[in-house]
Structures are given as structure tokens and as C-alpha cells.
From TrEMBL:
Residues 389-461 form the Alpha-D-phosphohexomutase C-terminal domain. Belongs to the phosphohexose mutase family. Its cofactor is Mg(2+). Keywords: Isomerase, Magnesium, Metal-binding, Phosphoprotein. Gene3D superfamilies: Alpha-D-Glucose-1,6-Bisphosphate, subunit A, domain 3, Alpha-D-phosphohexomutase, C-terminal domain. GO terms for biological process: carbohydrate metabolic process. InterPro entries: A-D-PHexomutase_a/b/a-I, A-D-PHexomutase_a/b/a-I/II/III, A-D-PHexomutase_a/b/a-II, A-D-PHexomutase_a/b/a-III, A-D-PHexomutase_C, A-D-PHexomutase_C_sf, Alpha-D-phosphohexomutase_SF. GO terms for molecular function: intramolecular phosphotransferase activity; metal ion binding. This is Phosphomannomutase/phosphoglucomutase. It comes from the Bacteria. It comes from Aquiluna borgnonia. Residues 12-125, 160-265, 288-381 form the Alpha-D-phosphohexomutase alpha/beta/alpha domain. Signal peptide: none annotated.
Length: 468
């Protein structure tokens, strides 16, 4: 089996995701540990390892530490944690890190997310390709140990992590809220009691938490840990209404993405949450004396995000879609915050990394100070009508794009992360973006308008043309 393992199949653009047993084995992981040490020049230095609740994660973390140790690196073992907890350790200690998780992928998968010191992301063009190639050599030829092998020791930064998040969001004036949280048997079941309750030994917040699927179980017995799929939010929506809760929150498997539903069970769009957090972060740093403030949003977020950033007196900067791209832009622009349509939220004061729990704290604080229900707050940040992302299997992508160009002659077309078609008349506007998937024969469509009927018309017309 070993001879047919193809590393290129499971080393993705921003991380590693593969099938346990057939692609990811302890031997493969050990080779990655050695390669990680070599490429990042960690001999004699410390780095952080964290892992989620998947069945293979703990043994993989140990195998990685062994491989790195053979090449002289010292592993600080965090044990069970969310991905953003490894970012915190990487940022606070200024050391490299690796997190074992496959995020929202099914139980048969596992993977690795890598960071350089300071929680700086590693993608294919910033070191991951070199790690992959070196790991492939170590896997084939074996790992030659250095004279001074590295060691492993436990690391616990739980209290520091919780204290730091709470220091970034003022929850002192929050009215008591009842919140249902669906952890989907993922790491949210570990971090929510720490941050929102008193499991870290710190004072509990003024919240009544109703837990859904907090038991850590990498087989995901209740539903997939992927809140981007609406069917995985149904239990949360029902529970919010059943318990008369003010808010519902859902986290993905490694708890780095956060989704919300209102008191009626209605979805709060990631764009609305991005707009809310944008304004709050602008206000927070302005109160500290900053005047030249930048906020990022990717090109698929609602137009309201850009409008709210500008209205708050900051500079909105549009980016392409993608984890490492936004992290790079965060660093290049000094942006205080960055929001994606996929519910990744990036914070300058969290080393430019994404943190779903921090976004959740902002939403809780905003709702707790708001004189009204979550549905009203959400509506104020959702004035337009969006299609959400719609995928179509397409055998000839260039031909489909050419059909769209001919079908929408009235549109201006921007070639930036796919094609964005836009049109504005006296009282109406619409835009839609079509992007190719990097890994599958798919076209992804997102559309928005200030009139629902127009959005539906444009959405349906575009789908019909794409699938023709």
C-alpha cells in the first residue's frame, strides 16, 4: 500500500486533508513531522502540536512529534484543542504550529493545518509544497536522526487563551441571553464551556448555554460538523425555538468557523455577521486612538459589508476568496478585521488568524446591548437578497463562461477571482460572480440584488445558461 500513496492527492492549497489508513498513516505523518522541522529550520527549537477529537488525531500528533524529534525539534503538546487555540499558542509564544484536524470533513478523514511562528499561514506557495516534497523523500528513504534529538512536553495555555479572547470583547454590559450551541460533537463542545462558561476556572459570563452534541466524538453520530450545509443546522433551528432562546450558534469540527441563527430559527448570514463585527472592530480601535483603519471582505460578501465599513469611517478593501490570501492581505494592509462569506473571520489582534469563537463573542456582545431580538438585528444588516453559493458540474468551463458573456450583454464584467457580472439602473442593481473550483469540475455561482425578484431572475437565468 505504501508505494502507491500519492502525496499530491491529499496536500491541498492551504492544508493537508486525506483518508485515514489509505493516505494518512503514522509513517506518513512521521515523515511530515521530520519535513516540517527541516523546512522551517526548527532543529533545537520548540513548536506547538494540537489535535481535535477524531479517532486518529492523538496518535497522529504523537507520530508527528516523533518525526520532528528525530530531526531535533521540541514539541509542545497541547492535546485536545480547537484550531484557533493553536493559532493563539503560535502567536503568543512566537513558534510554529501544526493542528491535526480535517475540519468539517467526514469521519474517515484527517489532516494538518500548519503555521509559521506568529500564526502565519503556510500554503502551497509559502512552504507547504517544500514540506510535501521533503516528507515524500523521508517516507521513501527513512528519517535520519540528528545527534541531539528533540523532546516532547505538555503545554496548557487554556486560561491565557480564554482571558485573551475576553479581553478583546467587552461583555460586562450584556443582558442575560439564552443561547443554544450546536457543537456537532466537534471541538466546540470543548471550547464553549471554557470561553462562554466557567470550565477554565474563570467567571462564567451572563449567559444560559443550552448544549447540543457537546460530547466529543469524531464519528459525528448526530450530523456532519459542517454548518455551511443547511441540513446540518436543522437541529439547532428547532432547539432555539423549542427553548425560547435568544440566539443559536453552530461550530464546525475544529471550531474555527461560527454560524448563527436568530430566535425564530432563521439563518443569520455570514455577511451580516461580518458587517456587525466590522463595525465593532472599527469602533474598538478608534476608541484606542486609531484613525487610518482598514477592513477586508472577500468579493462574495454582501454589498452591505462594504457599505457598513465605509459608513463607519474605515477603508473597505475587497479580496479574493481563500484562507492564505486573506491572511497575506491582513498582514500587507494592517487591516483590523477580515470577513469571508464562508464564515471565516480574521482578526488583526489575533495575529491575523481566523477565530470563530471571537466572532461569536462579538455577536453575543452586540445582541446583549441591543434593544430587540436577533432577527431584528440581523435584518438591519441584511437589506439585500442573496442566492448563497450554488455549485454546478461543468465539463467545459470556458464555454460556459462564454455563454454567460453573450447572455448578459448589459453587464460590466470584472475578471477578478472568476468573473463578476454587474448592472445598475435607476432603482435596481445586481451582481453575480462565477468562479471555478480549484479541485473539482465545478462552477460556483453567487448572486445578489436589492430586489428579491430580480435576484431570483438573474440566479435562475445564470444557472440555466451554466448547465445548458
Amino acid at each position: 500500500m505504501d508505494s502507491v500513496i500519492k502525496f499530491e492527492d491529499f496536500v491541498k492549497s492551504y492544508d493537508v486533508r486525506g483518508l485515514v489508513g489509505s493516505q494518512l498513516t503514522p509513517e506518513v505523518i512521521r515523515a511530515f513531522g521530520a519535513a516540517f522541522c527541516d523546512v522551517l529550520e526548527l532543529e533545537g527549537k520548540e513548536f506547538v502540536i494540537g489535535h481535535d477529537m477524531r479517532e486518529s488525531s492523538e496518535s497522529f500528533a504523537e507520530a508527528f512529534a516523533e518525526g520532528a524529534g528525530l530531526r531535533g525539534a521540541n514539541a509542545l503538546m497541547m492535546g485536545l484543542c480547537s484550531t484557533d487555540m493553536t493559532y493563539f499558542a503560535s502567536g503568543k509564544l512566537d513558534v510554529a504550529s501544526v493542528m491535526f484536524t480535517a475540519s468539517h470533513n467526514p469521519a474517515s478523514y484527517n489532516g494538518m493545518k500548519f503555521s509559521r511562528a506568529g500564526a502565519k499561514g503556510i500554503g502551497l506557495d509559502s512552504g507547504l509544497a517544500q514540506i510535501r516534497d521533503a516528507a515524500k523523500e523521508y517516507f521513501a528513504d527513512g528519517i535520519q536522526a540528528v545527534e541531539n534529538r528533540g523532546f516532547s512536553k505538555a503545554l496548557n495555555l487554556t486560561v491565557e487563551y480564554v482571558s485573551y479572547l475576553r479581553s478583546l470583547v467587552d461583555l460586562s454590559q450584556t443582558r442575560r441571553l439564552k443561547i443554544v450551541v450546536d457543537a456537532a460533537n466537534g471541538m466546540g463542545g470543548f471550547t464553549v464551556p471554557l470561553v462562554l462558561q466557567d470550565a477554565a476556572g474563570l467567571e462564567a459570563l451572563n449567559l444560559a448555554i443550552v448544549p447540543l452534541y457537546f460530547e466529543l466524538d469524531g464519528s459525528f453520530p448526530n450530523h456532519e460538523a459542517n454548518p455551511l450545509q443547511v441540513e446540518n443546522l436543522r437541529d439547532l433551528q428547532q432547539a432555539v425555538v423549542q427553548h425560547g432562546a435568544d440566539l443559536g450558534l453552530a461550530f464546525d469540527g475544529d471550531a474555527d468557523r461560527c454560524f448563527a441563527v436568530d430566535e425564530k430559527g432563521g439563518l443569520v448570514s455570514p455577511s451580516a455577521l461580518s458587517a456587525i463585527v466590522s463595525v465593532r472592530e472599527i469602533d474598538r480601535v478608534r476608541a484606542l486612538g486609531e484613525t487610518d483603519i482598514t477592513v477586508l471582505h472577500n468579493l462574495l460578501t454582501s454589498r452591505v459589508v462594504e457599505e457598513r465599513i465605509a459608513a463607519a469611517g474605515a477603508k473597505p478593501v475587497r479580496t479574493k476568496v481563500g484562507h492564505s490570501l486573506i491572511k497575506e492581505q491582513m498582514a500587507a494592509t494592517g487591516a483590523v478585521f477580515g470577513g469571508e462569506h464562508s464564515a471565516h473571520y480574521y482578526f488583526r489582534d489575533f495575529w491575523g488568524a481566523d477565530n470563530g469563537m471571537l466572532a461569536a463573542l462579538h455577536l453575543i456582545s452586540e445582541l446583549g446591548a441591543f434593544d430587540g431580538a436577533m432577527s431584528e438585528l440581523s435584518a438591519a444588516f441584511t437589506p439585500y437578497f442573496s442566492s448563497g453559493e450554488i455549485n454546478s458540474t461543468v465539463s467545459d468551463v470556458p464555454a460556459a463562461l462564454e455563454r454567460l458573456r453573450r447572455a448578459f450583454p448589459e453587464c460590466s464584467i470584472e475578471e477578478y477571482d472568476g468573473l463578476t457580472f454587474s448592472s445598475t439602473t435607476e432603482d435596481s442593481w445586481f451582481w453575480f460572480n462565477v468562479r471555478s473550483s480549484n479541485t473539482e469540475p465545478l462552477l460556483r455561482l453567487n448572486a445578489e440584488s436589492n430586489h428579491e425578484a430580480l435576484m431570483v431572475e438573474i440566479r435562475d437565468k445564470a444557472i440555466q445558461i451554466i448547465r445548458n
